[in-house]
Specification:
alpha/beta, TIM Barrel, 48% helix, globular
Length: 248
């Protein structure tokens, strides 16, 4: 059975979303993705750096690593035209995955149909590219509203629900459980991703364990589970280096 460290690496979305990121920064990100123990699932960058990231991954000899970007980010506007336009442009330059910031304020203000329609319009623009819908848990006043937003995102066509975490482990894990319950009740093959304050294998293992409990360990794979973090990779390297070479 794969170790938690190997699962975390395979399911990792390596993220660089600095306002001053450059092609040199994403080239360094691609070098980090080329490890002796395998590669992360995805590199997530701003739209204008998608092509540079793709080229850097190819130069590193790891073209299998997917490239992702964010749209409607970070404010989560209710402007569906904007979200659709940003998605169209990102797809045109080769985004494998779109990470859409859910319009939480629009949804909380009672415009639930509009928020769901925004997700649907973005999904329609994605084509064969995957759609992750980011749910900023702190933006929802209560558990019921978070659950309703998760249901709207699923109905709108999300391939993944990505919850933001703040490093408050018990609360974050409970939100993961709530969102996962919405997925299970929908009957759809929607994945779950975690984005934010995940900087240690201990934290990653908590989500891997919970996902294993909820879905079965055989489904804790990149197609159904992700950990999006800029810091986790460096913490995994010494753990992986100490593991037996022949472990699978």
């Amino acid at each position: 059975m794969l170790s938690d460290a190997r699962i975390a690496l395979a399911c990792l979305d390596l993220v660089s979303l600095g306002e001053d990121d450059t092609p040199a920064v994403v080239a360094a990100l691609a070098r980090r993705a080329h490890t002796p123990y395998g590669t992360p699932s995805t590199c997530c960058v701003y739209p204008e750096l998608l092509l540079a990231t793709r080229m850097s991954l190819m130069r590193e000899g790891i073209p299998q690593v997917r490239v992702a970007t964010v749209v409607n980010f970070p404010d989560g506007s209710g402007d569906a035209d904007r979200a659709e336009r940003e998605t169209r442009r990102a797809i045109a330059v080769g985004a494998d995955e779109i990470n859409l910031q859910f319009p939480a304020q629009t949804f909380a203000a009672g415009q639930r149909a509009s928020a769901q329609a925004l997700v649907s319009r973005v999904k329609a623009r994605c084509g064969k590219s995957g759609l992750k819908v980011i749910l900023d848990c702190a933006a929802f006043a209560d558990d019921q509203l978070l659950r309703a937003a998760a249901e709207a995102a699923i109905t709108g066509g999300a391939d993944f629900l990505m919850i933001s975490v703040r490093g408050k482990d018990s609360a974050d894990l409970m939100n993961f459980r709530r969102v996962s319950a919405a997925i299970a009740d929908s009957g759809r093959a929607v994945g779950v991703a975690v984005f934010g304050a995940i900087s240690s294998l201990v934290q990653a293992s908590a989500y891997i364990s919970l996902a294993s409990e909820l879905f079965g360990r055989e489904r804790v794979v990149p197609a159904r589970f992700r950990l999006a973090s800029s810091a986790l990779l460096d913490q995994l390297m010494p753990v992986l280096a100490a593991e037996p070479v022949d472990e699978d």
